[in-house]
Amino acid sequence: MRNISFSVPHGSICGLLGPNGSGKTTLLGCISGIKQPESGSILLNGKAVQKMTRKEIAREISVVPQQTGFIFPFKVLDMVLMGKAPVKEIWETPSLADRQEALDVLERLGIRELAGRTFQQISGGEKQMVLIARALVQNTKIMLLDEPTSHLDIKNQVLILNLIKRVSFENRITVLMTLHDPNLALHYCDQIILLKNGEIMNQGDTGEVMQSQQLSNVYGLEVSLEVTSRGAKVVVPSCWQ
Predict the structure, then answer these.
(1) What is the pLDDT of residue 128?
(2) Which of 40, 103, 201, 217 is placed for a possible disulfide with 194 were both Cys, Cβ 3.0 to 4.6 Å?
């Protein structure tokens, strides 16, 4: 990646859009401290992420990965409670209040019945929702989500993104998430960053960035913005028209 420079307004939702291989996941990895940038610095409240410990970062940033490699038979409730690890001492067990908070988040996501099942036994979409629940329990002011709607049906896509939008607004959480679907970005994001070949092609308010020509240039596919009968804007590939 190169020539990357941007900031996200506090309490807003920013979408990272671009074709496969454009650098969206790599960028999230650098921001979370999982990857190291070759040059430059990433500042979190004025402090370089590269100089922070993993625990310090986890107290400020929660991450929902696109995939997870857990192989141990953790129960879903225990997976969600891992979100409390950054504020716990070594060997300190979750409190009853922590457990209730985790159950409440699972309830809000409509998956409380999964609490006693093992993480490996549930579907890919359910795993995604559990990871989002873990991030919400972490109670950070910054949340990074890598394709939060992957593996989810349309109902749960709407459920998850509505919840993220509400939590961001109510708790003043800054959200940065990668998305494949530009229509979801149109509806849920306040800001947009368009990436291509590891470079930022455009960034700014959603209404300004999400224009037909800019999207066509980034994706290499002719698209247009249409308005539905209810007044909603949608991105439509020209070959569908």
Answers:
(1) 85
(2) 201
